[in-house]
## 1
Amino acid sequence: MTDLVRAPGPVVMGVLNVTPDSFSDGGRYADLDAAVGHGVRLREDGADLVDIGGESTRPGADRVDAATEAERVLPVIRELSAAGVPVSIDTSRARVAEAALDAGAVVVNDVSGGLADPDMARVVRDAGCPWVLMHWRGHSRQMRDLASYTDVVTDVRAELGQRVDAALAAGVAADRIVVDPGLGFAKTAAHNWELSARLPELLHLGYPLLFGASRKSYLGRLLAAADGTPRPTAQREAATVATSVLAVAAGAWGVRVHDVRATADALAVWTATGRPRLTPVRPDGTPVDREEAIR
Ligand code: PMM
């Protein structure tokens, strides 16, 4: 597992939210057996990692306290790890991350990119585990008010770069770092599409990139009914698969998805086709060169 960050990929992270209120699977896996069963299924479906979260990050969600978050995730992590399923802990709290690593988790997925808890860098450095640094500007309650950018791609790249620098300064090894643009976190639908379209510009940070679009509301809005009703979360799978393949073809290292089998199947097709890569193009169809993409 220590080689996961350097894996040729694509890495598929399966989502397991042990919460009553996550936007897509909230409430479904609150019971231990159901959660463990689902984690095993995600692994069988092709997940390289099962990402376990005990606090909803849905926009507008209230925070839970650290003890509640830990109580939700630790038993699931223990059982899945004992069953040989590689687990990441989706938390922005150092205390929860530390306990999760003790319970068998092998990766820390921090939606705050180390901003929410100043002690997180120490925990990750001491564990020597991979750390997913997601772009983040504030907790769920405030994030809708923070979606303001001069240019979303250059701003997200710069802010992620600062999080990487802070991690390195705290002694985290460069080869343990994964970055993530944080689709839907202080981002409008237009921001999410812009980040998707210009993903190669984020790769210039020089770190493996995780892409998490699965079932998010901008896909529901894209696929809305004629009366404007967003497509329900469970019916956003084909769009999710498309985002995953396009992200990987644009150079993403991995994707974070709810329906692992659908995305793993699509990525198997991509691999069998010789891993074709997208080249960024101008609106007139001519390729954008590296220098121009950096801007
Ligand atoms: N999205 C959610 C939660 N955790 N972690 C990373 N690294 N990237 C994401 O995009 C991300 C995340 C919210 O989605 P969920 O409610 O389906 O877990």
## 2
Amino acid sequence: MASKDFDTMEDSNRSSNPSIHVVSDPVRRTVLRGGVGVAASALFAPLAAGCASAASREKPRPLLPVIGFKGVPALATDTLVVPEGYVATAIAAWGEPVGVPGHMPTWRGDASNSAAEQALQMGMHHDGIHFYAIDGNSSTHGLLAMNHEYTDDGLLHVGGMNPWTAEKVKKAQAAHGLAVIEVEIKDGAWQMVRPSRYARRVTGQTPFAVGGPCAGHALFKTAADPEGRTVLGTLNNCASGKTPWGTYLSGEENFMGYFSGGDKLSAHEKRWGMRKGGWGYRWHEHDERFDAAKNPNEPNRFGWVVEIDPFDPTSTPVKRTALGRAAHEGAWVGVTQDGRAVVYSGEDARFEYIYKFVSRDKIAPAGRGLTQAQANRSLLDHGTLYVARFNADGSGNWLPLVHGSGPLTVANGFADQGEVLIKARQASDLLGATKMDRPEWLAIDPNSGWVYCTLTNNSARGAKELPGVDAANPRANNVMGQIIRWQDDRDFDGTAFQWNHLVLAGDPANERAEAKGNIQGDIYACPDGIAFDARGGLWIQTDMGPTAMHKGELKNVGNNQMLACDVATGQTRRFLTGPTHCEITGLTWTPDGTTMFLNVQHPGETPSERSDPAEPTQYSNWPDYQPGGRPRSATVVVRKRDGGVIGS
Ligand code: FEO
Ligand code: CA
Ligand code: CA
Ligand code: CA
């Protein structure tokens, strides 16, 4: 099985800075600045209302404990384990038909399904996920929108990549993108509803519209799209965000891996990591669109936050260029006191940046025959993009990426705002933004408005001729990762902020100072997915690479896992461990908090030292446990046996 062991390739885990603040909280309920507090609770209103539940409107339920479960040990078995009193079930695994009426090809365990069939089935490598209640508040019936990040071509095809054919490239493209499925509780268990009028796959070939300043831009025009307004496909979609107007945002992360450059790379191509031959997908061998020597503008059309309306399978998804081009992990929305959207986003790559976009206009209500999603269909096309600078004294600044301001001028190579956005890395370099340790997910505390971001690891930090440590990224050879947090001045659109670290990850028992963490409670490394539940509990998911796990400084950490953290006290407890070599990612709840959906990505991923596509090594057969069967990414549904709120 071939492996795109990006986490190891991009990194995997070292250092301790005693000056780092631990968790004692400056944050929390005390800093509920009127405006932001109101805005934050408005954003989370459906969840909060659901938690209070219809039964107790006039007498709100007392605040449930954030960590009310018995923790699980750091297991390293090919199983998925949740605490006593909980049940976890896998649904919607790779290859299951999504439920498009009249087009439901069944899963075939030998992977002999065609490209056309794959385009109607769940994609590979499930990642970010969100629940959309069917009537706005149902906790038993809704849609799940989710990402399919990338493919393991050794698993995806009969014979793996040997031989490598045009049909296999089409199938790989069909296994990328997004899925929208309908789910409901039937006979006491969550199931996919099939057929469903909502069921949809978006793939590496689905037409996207272009929104914002890059629509029609010279650097967006290609021979196949001379107008520069229609892009085929979305790729490497990692995390997701749910907007207050009911749409789904998804980040195009390591898009450059799909493109092969020519013999001579431009400075622009080099800055974005292009290589001759690409990163191993080999699409360019059968699809010229991915040969950047022939189509140099095609890579400019990837690296965006994309938006889809999960309730309208006929709607055209849109690339939101005003939010800037980056190896976007995902996108998360806050709402200002006056009702504008603020979208935070990080770039999961070593020494890259954290951004925020502030919309020009207010979020519009539904009305005049339009759903709220339709009423806000150009909201994210107008506004201001900023990049973060974390100062050593605990303050920070949001630096505007606006053409004509500061160094972002024609003389410095930026023709217009479109070019600033397409070359957001170069623009951020010039502004002196802070180069981070691989920003992954962000999450906004519904109680305080503080914004949290995982910095998963960066083993290159401090290496020869690369950036050294700074206050925000304090450990050289950082293989463990950290979680940083900030509060913008006055409101989410503030251009200055205060920051500190929630935690430095890593086993505090490690000998090497750089690998010691300051976690209080159960240990973990390489935080990636994070999300707050309605009670203010922070859930942390991990992504250690399979090559590094279970040995050395990671020997006590177990498989990738999910933990809950009370940010008021810093106490952390392990809730779940995943099967062998999987990543735990993606997290969403029903409005009443009694069902949690998360994703298990790439169970059985092949470590990099063994990633020969021809090698029939098998590390996992989760979730089907068929002898010799293929492991499959899948969605996991977690419920409490007594029907209570998850985690309480
Ligand atoms: Fe695809 Fe950064 O995780
Ligand atoms: Ca991730
Ligand atoms: Ca990761
Ligand atoms: Ca992964």
